[in-house]
Amino acid sequence: MLSLSSSQPSTTTKSALVLHHNRHHGHPTLKIRAIDAAQPFDYETRISTRFIQSTKLKIAVIGFGNFGQFLSKTLVSQGHTVLAHSRSDYSAAAANLGVSFYLDPDDLCEEHPDVILLCTSILSTGSVLSSLPFQRLKRSTLFVDVLSVKEFARDLLIQSLPPDFDILCTHPMFGPESGKNGWKGLPFVYDRVRVGKEESRVLRCERFLEIFEKEGCRMVEMSCAEHDRHAAGSQFITHTMGRVLQKLGLEKTPISTKGYETLLDLVENTSSDSFDLYYGLFMYNKNAMEQLERLDLAFEELRKELFEILHRAVRSQLFGEAERGGREDERPAVREAPPNGRALPPPSETVGVENS
């Protein structure tokens, strides 16, 4: 009898069949002694696997809080190997994301990651850098930061890191809240501060940037200085207005307009970030103080405009046509805030006051 499986071998399978004598029944039996079949990992498959692996990075996330976990989820989904370290124990959260967590930074650095991704707060970045054992890393390791202030981050990395290390300063202009439904169309700012000329180092930097390109980010290459000028007039002002409105204790009403609901969303988005972040935006961006002064000037000019209109209305009621000194619909001249980068003028006297 034939001792073969019920299914027939495929056309790509070559089987060596050998006759054996059955001692009990005296009948020859046919058994399979060897199979020279096409293996699942043939040459082409191995080459393809190696190519895929060559495009993946081993990334160590330093600072595994909300933002670190937020980025790690996408890094893992793209097939990169992700390691993590933080002062707090996030072992459980890391395991849920498929990330290897290390409480000891020495153990993490001995894994020789391709990239060190700093997801620390602005205020703690200096102390975190000083705690890393650089001697355990590969000499050409790429350091990437995601801080919201870039000149400070650039200067700190250049000052703290050995000269052989590469530096890429970045700022994903989104977070766990604004990026929860995907990163498509969201701006990602980057500056290749220091990248070695060797092809492997250039490609490593490009592969990291491709992570955000694949997610549909709007890639913006910009110097750290230019970033901080723009960020002071946009991100810092946004956070300032959100926190001012938070102090007012705004709440939803039965007749809330779309514009009012937008303000409530602004309060929610900005208040979800730590005050340390907001303080860092002010303290470590030299352009932030100018924006606060411009904001004060704008409020002052707006208040003057309102009071001037009120003053004219009261004078008109008290003294009649003879004391109006002008047309009823005449509006006061209001001084506007100067453009960004220009010096603020000294405080002026009341603007547009009519001669009585």
From TrEMBL:
Domain Prephenate/arogenate dehydrogenase: 57-336
InterPro entries: 6-PGluconate_DH-like_C_sf (IPR008927), Arogenate_DH_2 (IPR012070), NAD(P)-bd_dom_sf (IPR036291), PDH_N (IPR046826), Prephen_DH (IPR003099), TYRAAT1/2 (IPR045011), TYRAAT2_C (IPR059064)
Regions of compositional bias (Basic and acidic residues) in chain numbering: 321-334
Swiss-Prot/TrEMBL GO biological process terms: tyrosine biosynthetic process
Gene3D superfamilies the record matches: NAD(P)-binding Rossmann-like Domain (3.40.50.720)
Keywords, in A-Z order: Oxidoreductase
Alphabetized Pfam families for the sequence: PDH_N, TYRAAT1_C
Molecular function terms, GO-annotated: arogenate dehydrogenase (NADP+) activity; NAD+ binding; prephenate dehydrogenase (NAD+) activity; prephenate dehydrogenase (NADP+) activity
Segments for region (Disordered): 320-356
PANTHER family: AROGENATE DEHYDROGENASE 2, CHLOROPLASTIC, AROGENATE DEHYDROGENASE-RELATED
Protein name in the entry: Prephenate/arogenate dehydrogenase domain-containing protein
Organism: Escallonia rubra
Lineage, uppermost ranks: Eukaryota, Viridiplantae, Streptophyta, Embryophyta, Tracheophyta
